[in-house]
Amino acid sequence: MKHQLRVEELARDERFVRVDLFQQAMDPRTVRNRAEGKGSRRPPKLTPDRPDASEGARSLMHGIFMGEIQALEGAGRTCWDFPTGTGREEAPFELKLDMARQCWDETRHVEISVKLGDWMGTEIGEFSEATFLYEAACNPDPVLRLTGVNRALEGLAIDIFNTMRDFGQASGDPVLEFCEDWMLADEVTHVKMGSDWLRRMTATDPERRANALEFQKVVDQLFSLGGFRGEEADSPIKLARRFRELAGFDTAEIDEIAELSIASRQQAEAMQAAGAAQAQATADAAPGPRGVVPDGTGS
Predict the structure, then answer these.
(1) d(Cα 5, Cα 17) in Å, to the nearest integer?
(2) Does the residue 35 lie in any domain?
(3) What is the number of domains present in the chain?
């Protein structure tokens, strides 16, 4: 079996449509709206009273389903990609056992997500697949892979599952609430495994630990997504502080993620304001109809 499988080589059937982050960012509709300062830099908070609440919940649930598939693939690759041992480019046998246990959990999550999709009226492949989770699982350094996947992206999964559980409760959907609560408990365990192994594998190498935490910060910042996740009342995804504590994050680490989200939101709002100002300036400079220039005088 091949080691270090590239994202392009993942097995998918004809139901799946893969869209990478570059394609999403460069979508002509997104680029045009950004240039004209139109639209929100992030979606509104998912609440039952939103007109598009059903569509938003189904889209998010399909994204969770795709994430579970990639988490399964990533954990499985960690079991195989690295030789067994305690060297810098090796993975301890006990770590591989934890990753095998995570594979079992992720498999169960995929099955739950498929049934939830049926319950919510969603077909597999109805929404596109982003591959950023598996791409993080392609890092050739086992410590960076654990940090990027089990702490950063699985940490984001804690926030998403907690948000979806709350939405299920608020919308009176006991099936959604129960399933999200069940999977949330597993995600806390996965993140805790990442936290524990990060400390164990870098116990005698503080520089490697610092590099790993810096890599995690980069991933967390990348997926703050314009303040998409945060602690503000209108944050689409609420930062699950208590569950992150259970998963091995200390208060300073959680505070840093919250600060990254605030900074990301401010940056997105500044970019939107600049785009709107530029669009207005362009409109003001354009010739008026029938030879009339913007200051009202004839041509």
Answers:
(1) 19
(2) no
(3) 1
Domain assignment present for residue 9? The answer is: no
Quick one: average pLDDT of 227-232? 78
Q: What are φ and ψ of residue 230, in 5° steps?
A: -175, -170
Residue 102 pLDDT level (bands cut at 50, 70, 90): very high
Question: 218 or 25, which is more confident?
Answer: 218
- Cα separation, 93 vs 99, whole angstroms: 10
Mean of per-residue pLDDT scores for the chain: 84
Question: Rounded to whole angstroms, what are the CA distances from 232 to 41, 151, 239, 259, 294?
Answer: 15, 22, 9, 11, 42
- The total of other beta-carbon atoms located within 10 Å of residue 264's CB is 23
Is residue 4 one of the residues assigned to a domain? no
Instruction: Kindly give, in sequence order, each residue whose CB lies less than 8 Å from that of residue 58, ignoring residues fewer than 6 positions away.
Output: 117, 120, 121, 122, 126, 127
pLDDT for residue 175? 95
Burial 277-294 (b: 16+ CB within 10 A, else e): eebeeeeeeeeeeeeeee
User: Strand pairing partners for 230?
Assistant: 238
Q: Which amino acid is at 222?
A: L
d(CA 142, CA 201): 9
Among left, alpha and beta (phi > 0; psi -120 to 50; other), residue 227 is left
236 close to 250: Cβ distance less than 8 angstroms:
no
**Token pair listed for 56:** 């938003």
CATH number at residue 255: 1.20.1260.10
- What span, in angstroms and rounded, lies between the C-alpha atoms of 31 and 33? 6
Split at pLDDT 50, 70, 90, the class of 245 is: very high
Between CA 189 and CA 200 the distance in angstroms is: 16
**Does residue 18 lie within any of the structural domains?**
no
